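Show me any protein, keeping tokens residue-aligned.
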Amino acid sequence: MVLLLTYLAFMVLGDIAAYLIGLSVEQVWPTASLPVFLVFYFLFLWVSWVIAVWVTKPSSAPTPAPAAG
């Protein structure tokens, strides 16, 4: 559940970034704004997942010593 919430948080940030980048491109080159937005949107889908998995990766637990016996 933590992984999905982390992914959702990064996705929202990525969506905002893609929107702002597309909006700034629209000011300079209006016909390129939609393709630029779509590229960044799908890029942020993937990047958000990779970052969410990396952030929520459990720390490696120490391996127990073999039992004497």
About this structure: The chain has one domain: 2-56. The CA atoms of residues 61 and 67 lie 17 Å apart. Helices lie at 2-28, 33-56.
